[in-house]
Specification:
With about 80 residues, the protein is mainly beta. The chain has one helix spanning about 65-70; strands spanning about 15-20, 25-30, 30, 35-40, 45-50. It has one domain. The chain is about 5% helix and about 25% strand. The strands form two sheets. It has a three-stranded antiparallel β-sheet with strand order 2-1-5, with no helix packed on it. A two-stranded antiparallel sheet has the order 3-4.
Length: about 80
C-alpha cells in the first residue's frame, strides 16, 4: 500500500498523482505548466500530500463484468 508523501516538491510534474488538500479533498490531478499549479485547485490552494496515481481495481466477482453490471444495485 502506498502512503501519502508530505513533500509536495517531490511530486512528479510529468505524471498524474493523487493529492489531498487541507480541507480533506482527495482527487487525481496533474501539473499545469502554464499556470504553474495543480489542475483542479484554486489559485491559492495547495495540496498537503500526494501519492502516485493508481487506478483502483474494482472488486467485482466477475472481472469481465461491465461497469454497468458492477454498479447495478438491487431495488
Amino acid at each position: 500500500m502506498t502512503t501519502w508523501n508530505h513533500d509536495i516538491s517531490a511530486a512528479p510534474k510529468d505524471k498524474r498523482v493523487w493529492i489531498v488538500t487541507k480541507c480533506g479533498l482527495v482527487t487525481p490531478t496533474y501539473w499545469v505548466k502554464s499556470r504553474e499549479a495543480w489542475a483542479g485547485l484554486g489559485t491559492k490552494e495547495e495540496p498537503i500530500a500526494w501519492q502516485p496515481y493508481v487506478v483502483p481495481v474494482y472488486p467485482a466477482p466477475n472481472p469481465e463484468a461491465t461497469i454497468r453490471e458492477r454498479t447495478r444495485r438491487p431495488l
